[in-house]
């Protein structure tokens, strides 16, 4: 229950709970309803309220304001509402525990097992005990806000004069409320109070009702997602929970499916949800989930281990954290590129090893990779010059080498080339940075030379054009040797003078390799 913020309850709550004014069933503005159980049960007060309420016009529809749910600010354990909700959560938890026991009993040691997963009532946001879990409730508005106005029941009363008993009579009402709980969704656990002479105050009943409805809706939403999205099976339960939270918080509207399953990542398409105060969510998003199966990442160590930006952290981290670092790296690199005006996905949010960015493509169809698209010779030439320009910008303005640049990581969209997949990108002074750049140049040259762009520079010319270096070797082997010599020189420089000297200064000084 801690994650819903009960622990943060203010010890001295003000004169009335904050939600009172926001309750969707409202209270006539002239009335001041007290919320303590004793007050609610007081006959005197009930009659007063009844009279006042009858004098006032009965609004047919009460506009739904913010739901009366537990959010960070609205904590008041003295309220019946709060207690009811806490009780409900406890019911849910017990129900789930019981379900788990039954599941276990039925399955025994059988190799074929059945799952009660879909019947669970669990509250996803308080079911994860991971201590470093991001709490979505912190940053989001209440995702369970009622989205339909709630109608007030019709007026009705029996008796005459002083003995009038209306639907507002507290005892009748309490009993009725208890009975009406049976009308909640069949799977909604109302406890075993139904058989007793239990009287629920209107407030408590309404809160429970609202809670039941919103739980029902949310449950349906979760179960629907689960059943329709086979793509999500590609990710582990923790990741799935992260994705659910993104949907439940309203940040994403729906996750439609998987676009790509690679060795190191799975990419999903999603429709963007509601903007927050500080973020506009693009209408379509790509979610890159870095795989947490570690062996795939072993061969990537060389990129990050020698990247001084991550050097201090690398040795201390466990493999799970290293994978998060890949996601973080991609985010930082994309941001640098965005700032330089290079067409690339825009970062939306990073949560652990899950990176949400804008989707390059339209209507769930990702833009084709350069290797899959057939361009006119004119477009091909245009693409080539654009890439030459982007590689220079990347090197000079972003201080980055893509390090996996090829027709597989360039998308053709909107009549231009977009760069993606930059988690492995490094700074040029990375111990292997120039080798990576040379490899990128080789890929690009070969692709465009084969693609019939007569103007395309060869890989060595392209390397010099991008880096501003002037390596004169006229064959690949010697060129490669010179590159390695430069890298060695830089490493020695780092050894002797400390690593910061090896980076380029921001005012565009020539790189150290020019020395
Ligand atoms: P990997 O490391 O698996 O190659 P990528 O970042 O290259 O990861 O993503 C894999 C594929 O997913 C890409 O080839 C592309 O088709 C698709 N993809 C990735 N990001 C986006 C995006 N922002 N918009 C559209 N498609 C994307
Ligand atoms: Mn890729």
UniProtKB/TrEMBL annotation:
Keywords: Antiviral defense, ATP-binding, Cytoplasm, Immunity, Innate immunity, Kinase, Magnesium, Metal-binding, Nucleotide-binding, Phosphoprotein, Ribosome biogenesis, Serine/threonine-protein kinase, Transferase. Its EC number is 2.7.11.1. GO terms for cellular component: cytoplasm. The keyword Secreted does not apply. One of its GO terms (molecular function) is ATP binding. GO terms for biological process: defense response to virus; innate immune response; ribosome biogenesis. Residues 124-161, 496-515 are annotated as: Disordered. InterPro entries: Kinase-like_dom_sf (IPR011009), RIO-type_Ser/Thr_kinase (IPR051272), RIO_dom (IPR018934), RIO_kinase (IPR000687), RIO_kinase_CS (IPR018935), Ser/Thr_kinase_Rio3 (IPR017406). Its cofactor is Mg(2+). Residues 224-468 form the RIO kinase domain. It catalyses: L-threonyl-[protein] + ATP = O-phospho-L-threonyl-[protein] + ADP + H(+); L-seryl-[protein] + ATP = O-phospho-L-seryl-[protein] + ADP + H(+). Residues 137-148 have a biased composition (Basic and acidic residues). It is found in: Cytoplasm. It comes from the Eukaryota. Belongs to the protein kinase superfamily. RIO-type Ser/Thr kinase family. PANTHER family: SERINE/THREONINE-PROTEIN KINASE RIO1 (PTHR45723). Interacts with CASP10. Interacts with IRF3; RIOK3 probably mediates the interaction of TBK1 with IRF3. Associated with 40S pre-ribosomal particles. This is Serine/threonine-protein kinase RIO3. It comes from Ploceus nigricollis. The gene is Riok3.
